[in-house]
Amino acid sequence: MGSSAFFFTFFLWFLLLSVTGYSVYISFGPPSKKIKRSF
Predict the structure, then answer these.
(1) Distance (Å, rounded) from C-alpha 19 to C-alpha 25?
(2) From CA 19, how far away is CA 13, in angstroms rounded?
(3) How do residues 13-30 score in pLDDT, each as one tens digit?
(4) In this structure, what DSSP letter does residue 34 have?
């Protein structure tokens, strides 16, 4: 029971960090030159 809860928590943190990192990459990385920003 404890190991599955730990794995689930680790998976949630990995998902959150990967989504955040991808958002930062899209905002400030090479693809940002192709996107027209209104602000």
Answers:
(1) 10
(2) 10
(3) 999 999 999 998 888 877
(4) T
